[in-house]
Amino acid sequence: MTKSNTTLDQIRFTPTEKNLFYPTLRKRVDQYFIDHKISRNANGEMVMKTIILICGYLLPFVAMLVFGITGPLGYFLWAFMGFCVAGIGMSVMHDANHGAYSSSQKVNDLIGFSINLAGGAAFNWKLQHNILHHTYTNISSHDEDIKDRAIMKFNPHSKRKGIQRFQHFYAFFFYGLITIYWVLAKDIVQYFLFIKLGVNKNSASENRQLLFRIILLKVLYFSVLIGIPLYVGMPANFLIWGFLLMHFTAGIILTLVFQLAHSVEGTVHPLPDNEGRINSDWAIHQMQTTVNFSRKNKFLSWYLGGLNYQVEHHLFPKICHVHYPALSEIVEATAKEYDVPYLENRSFGEAFMSHVRYLKELGSLPSFNEALG
């Protein structure tokens, strides 16, 4: 018998037998960096990518303000800003807030602050992503990334709603709304939720300061993205639709890419037993719940910040993603040696269709609990 309301401090991974897969893999990865005499952190390629993506976000905005660009070209620039801010989220902010961008925590904190370009708060993101998602991947009672949202079903253990049989059609519209919700309400909702769950370990005084900073940063964000354009005379109608287009573009890219790693066919969604045990080694659990895609596509590997190498990322989140293509060969070979699954979709299209089929299956079939009942 399993349960889904186990508290965070009760969950533990307890393999039935010792497995040398991860200790062996760690030694081989460590040796790779020794042999090649390179840092685990960002290199020149990563720094250049950071500059390109941040400039790709900021310069179109400045151009619209300075030259009064509106119309079709203006909407294209808003969409391009969304494309770049999604790239910043996946390639720059993501590594920094994992502590992988630099060996200096101050540099990581500074670069991680780029999450505010999307209107988000780094503190909440770290709690949701680094702790809840990375520790409890695809454990539906704890992984915030696969919890059901409104009429979206990602959790195979939850009760099914009738409308969800169509979710593989309407899902992508709601994916586009994610960053709008994030900038408007998500950080405030998560602030109270994470305190309630005990994930936020701050004192009451620290949390009052945190809430003040979250609100202040959102006021600053809207002052810059909405206030300044209005002040210089940008038409309000164009501004609002352009702002929404930017967020819709960023939202659909960010959400879809993250979904292609865990909400696809072939992944598992275990629940803890009554003692809070997951009967698996943590590293092997990551291999069973995480899927790579498009490893050979150089542009996607550059733009997605290694999120198409999610297997390597989940095993080594503190290593900068520019090293994942090389590490993937080591991980795949070691997994094969120890008879551990290495899940992969060869192309973006293959991963996308697997996600669509997965959404359709979740929306059409009874949940595990319904089936047992």
How is this fold's topology laid out?
Elements (H helix, E strand, L loop, with lengths): L11 E2 L7 H16 L7 H24 L3 H27 L7 H8 L9 H14 L31 H9 L2 H20 L6 H28 L4 H27 L14 E2 L3 H8 L2 E2 L4 H6 L6 H6 L8 H14 L6 E2 L2 H17 L3 H5 L1
Parallel strand pairs: 1-2, 3-4
Biggest beta-sheet profile: 2 strands, parallel
Estimate nothing, just give the exact number of structural domains. 1
Question: Would you tell me the overall average pLDDT?
Answer: 92
Secondary-structure element series = EHHHHHHHHHEHEHHHEHH
**Shape call:** globular
Distance between the termini: 13 Å
What is the strand arrangement across the widest sheet? Answer: 1-2
Structural class, by secondary structure, is mainly alpha
Q: How many H/I helices? A: 15
Unreliable sequence segments: 1-7, 368-373
Give the oligomer, counting copies of the same chain as homo and different chains as hetero: single chain
The beta-strand count equals 4
Query: Helix fraction?
Result: 55-70%
What percentage of the residues does DSSP assign to strands (E)? under 5%
Q: What Rg is obtained from the alpha carbons, in whole angstroms?
A: 21 Å
